[in-house]
């Protein structure tokens, strides 16, 4: 059974930094894309960052330059480092995985709340 377990959310002051991590269980980790999406109330889920199995990285426009995604295939974990956080970054952050070898099947974590106060 595939599980994505997020950790690291919380409350942070505007301008501060926060790191999230997501541990994958039940996935052949090196062969999947891993990433983060976020959703705030009343808005659609949006891309934060994705790190593909081939090594390419894509960042969402709203966070580009302020976040860094990385992965440790040995630990089956993906990380998201966020800096210069803004109140508009407040959202539930979801860990995401896509497995190309399984017809691009997608998996989602339960989400972790990030709240940025001014």
Please give a structural write-up:
The chain is mainly beta and 118 residues long. It is built from no helices and 11 strands. The strands form 2 sheets. Strands 2, 4, 5, 6, 9, 10 and 11 form a 7-stranded mixed beta sheet that branches. The radius of gyration is 14 Å and the shape is globular. The mean pLDDT is 95.
Summarize the structure.
This protein has about 120 residues and is mainly beta.
Shape estimate? globular
Number of helices: 0
- Briefly note the structural class of the backbone: mainly beta
Residue share in helices?
under 10%
Mean pLDDT: 95
Poorly predicted sequence stretches spanning 5 or more consecutive residues: none
Strand content: over 45%
Rounded Rg: 14 Å
Termini separation: 40 Å
Assembly state of the chains shown: single chain
Biggest sheet record: 7 strands, mixed
Kindly state the number of beta strands: 11
H and E string: EEEEEEEEEEE
